[in-house]
Amino acid sequence: MHNYITVRTKSNKISFQLSKKVAMVTILLCILLCGMIMLALSVGSDFIHPVTVLKELFGYGTGEYLFTIQTLRLPRVLLAVLVGMALAVSGLILQGIIRNPLAAPDIIGVTSGASVGAMLFLTYATVSIHYLPLAAIIGAGVVSAIIYLLSWNKGVTPIRMVLIGIGISALTKGIVTMLIVMGEEVRTTRAYIWLTGSLYGANMQDVYLLLPWVIVLSIFTFVMARVINVKELGDDIAVGVGVQVQVYRLLFLLISVMLAGTAVAFVGGIAFVGLVAPHISRMLVGRSFAALIPISAMVGAIIVIFADIVGRTLFLPKDLPAGVFTAAIGAPFFIYLLFRTRNQHS
Amino acid sequence: MNSIKLISFRKMVMFLVLLFALVLVGCGNKESEDASNADDNNTTQESSTDNNSTENSSREVTHSLGTTTIEGTPTKIVTLYQGATDVAVAMGIKPVGVVESWADTPYYEYLQKDLEGIPLLGEETQPNLEEIAKLQPDLIIASKNRHEEIYEQLSQIAPTVVHQDVFDFKGTINLIGESTGKEDKAKELLAEWESRVADFQTKIKDKLGDKWPISASVVNFRADHARVYPAGYAGEILTELGFKGPKNITENPLPIVLRFTDKESIPQMDADVIYMFYIEDEATKKTLEEWTSHPLWKELEAVKNDQVYRVEEVYWNFAGGILSAHIMLDDIYDRFELEK
Questions:
Q1: Which of A134, A143, A230, B318 is least buried, going by the fewest C-beta atoms within 10 A?
Q2: TM spans, by residue (chain A) (predicted)?
Q3: Chain A contact present for B224, CB below 8 A
Q4: CATH architecture of B188-335
């Protein structure tokens, strides 16, 4: 029992056990994440020494690199961190409540809904492109709601949601393709970049808009962690120990949609992070949900930062969408996952 | 065993409502900020037009995304779309940085001599901001369709002027002329173009007589579909020359591009003369063969009269500039065996 530290508030409302292993992994990931952030701020068209980066950031620099670091690199890195965290936590919640290791924000219609919203905006809207995130998030909300309502039959079961989610996502893909075919050429190239997901052109305003969502929702999820722990055992057991299954399922779905929806709204359909980050985290620390939240968030952030670093430095002077590389990391891992699950059953 | 006590549902709802309120406030702030920024822009615009009459060294250029003040005569110019690069070269400007071409990367063959050695800034759709900043330009020419999102960052690097369409070469000429103080050169280029258009119209009328104006369509074959460009770069130039659009496309205004996946749509391509372009790869060649061997293709007016020509996509579609327009026009002169 000495491997665990138990944290419990007086009123018993929040409680979790912290294993020493989890603490170690958390600290290591923190260091890795900080290292990645420093690396991302240092590399680019020109390598800027990390010490110079720190000096410039804290106002002791010569100002020579201030613009590059503060205006071009910093917002991009911060947005990568937030998006990675949001997608990872969203995926983690979904995999917990749908009780399916292959669940990801795409399944509940977030990505596909946001895509339809964004494509409609790119094809028909005449207002400033800065309203694109709004269109995407509305799309995500609407399609998720449709999936939830269609799955309703005296309550919602995970399996029905998954099946209807797959059906609706096929439908939305069809709509997206149709809109691309109908759209002007200049707009469709923009659409393809959005669908791949890119951190290009990030600014501090994006960061400020995304920040409250990610922080508040992640903390909220952390507070509610033990409910998900119970839900992972299945609806019957959850009901048995006194969890209002339907209410909490809706609540967690809502959180998951909000997290992934806002992230996708700003950067487009960055794929696989929501699927892969929770799995990597489970391999690191096991199944305790409270521990998985910060770990997945950090893993997600690291994946997105890494993908963006690769995208903007490996093929200079080209600046490629980060989504290309999250898919490149994610797809093989996905296959590995399927492979492993198959072997477990045989 | 302790039963698990949970936070009451009501508290959670309150919490979420609070959260929504918080985020909405955040969004609201952003909008009011934008609004106040817009006001600022308006006021600066008004006040600076007053300055303009007294000070000649700074210029006010109004464009698709606002008004930009340009000090002195820019010498280090960055062009962020193909048409702007072409026009800059035509005006005798050597850009300090350009985006990669769509074909024959990194530069189109016809611009090779003029652009040799100029730093590349990545692709037109996502030009590398750090590379642009490194060049320390004093003017950036961008396009609204491609670069609206990064306009603010670009403006922090250098005064940025933005043109609405990437293929409207006349607009690009005016914009670059105005921004660089080469209005005379811009007028000269446009006048030269207009006189060539007039020359073409007289000669083609002499040659074809009553048959003129004939209709023309610009057709493009791709690996998995075919396209017609009724408007767009080539379409608009053909219209300016006096050609009628494809016979069976009556939409007004003409669409920029129509994409076809079904060979039943072949009649939509019908015209007295067809100019087509495609790239040389196996998949595209297969599409081309399938479409052009279809019975409906053989019914087309241009096909029956042997008036189908393969043209170079760089000049007819990709480049989008004034130099490429002249090359395209030369091409049309040659096909009709007219004297230039």
A1: A134
A2: 21-41, 47-67, 79-98, 104-124, 131-150, 162-182, 207-228, 248-277, 289-310, 322-339
A3: no
A4: 3-Layer(aba) Sandwich (3.40)
Mean pLDDT value across residues B253-278:
87
Residue to test with chain A: of B81, B129, B157, B220, most A Cβ within 10 A: B129
CATH 3.40.50.1980 segments of chain B: 59-181, 188-335
Per-residue b or e along A113-133, where b marks 16 or more CB atoms closer than 10 Å to that residue's CB: bbbbbbbbbbbeeeeebbebb
Q: Which CATH number fits domain A77-345: 1.10.3470.10, 1.10.10.10, 1.20.140.10, 3.10.129.10?
A: 1.10.3470.10
Whether ipTM tops 0.90, in short, is no
Q: Where are the domains of chain A?
A: 77-345
Cross-chain CB nearest to B121 (options A216, A247, A317): A317
Q: Is B134 on the interface with A (CB under 8 A)?
A: yes
CB pairs under 8 A between A and B: 115
- What pLDDT shows up at residue A280? 87
Single-letter amino acid, residue B43: T
Cα–Cα distance between B261 and A324 in angstroms, integer?
A: 27
As a whole number of Å, the CA-based R_g of chain A is 21
Kind plus residue range of the DSSP H or E element containing B142: strand B139-143
CA of B260 vs chain A CAs: smallest distance (Å)? 9
Chain B closest-CA separation from residue A342 CA (Å): 35
What is the pLDDT at residue A74? 92
B248 three-class SS: coil
Q: Which residues in chain A have Cβ-Cβ distances shorter than 8 Å to B11? A: none
Residues from chain B contacting residue A201 (CB–CB below 8 Å) = 126, 129, 149-150, 153
Does the domain spanning B59-181 belong to CATH 3.20.20.10?
no
Separation CA B277–CA B274 (nearest Å):
10
Cβ of A68 and B149 within 8 Å? no
| Record: contact B146-A190, CB cut-off 8 A | yes
Q: How far apart are CA B213 and CA B202, in angstroms?
A: 11
Strand bridging mode B273-277 / B216-221: parallel
> Considering only CA atoms, which of A17, A24, A109 is closest in space to residue A295?
A24
Residues of B whose CB is below 8 A from A244: 6, 9
Partner residue facing B125 (CB), from A46, A189, A241: A189
A127 vs B311, which has greater pLDDT? Answer: B311
Which chain B positions have a beta carbon within 8 Å of A209's beta carbon? 26-27, 30
**pLDDT for B90-108, tens place per residue?**
999 999 999 998 888 788 9
Where are any strands of DSSP class E within B258-316?
A: 258-260, 273-277, 308-310
**Average pLDDT, 10 consecutive residues per value, chain A (346 residues):** 68 70 88 93 88 85 82 92 93 84 78 88 81 88 89 80 87 88 76 86 88 89 78 70 76 88 88 87 82 90 93 87 85 77 59
The pLDDT value given to residue B11:
63
CB contact under 8 A, B7 and A224: yes
Mean pLDDT of B267-295: 89
Q: How many CA atoms lie within 13 A of B27 on its CB side?
A: 13
Interface contact flag, A129 B149, Cβ < 8 Å: yes
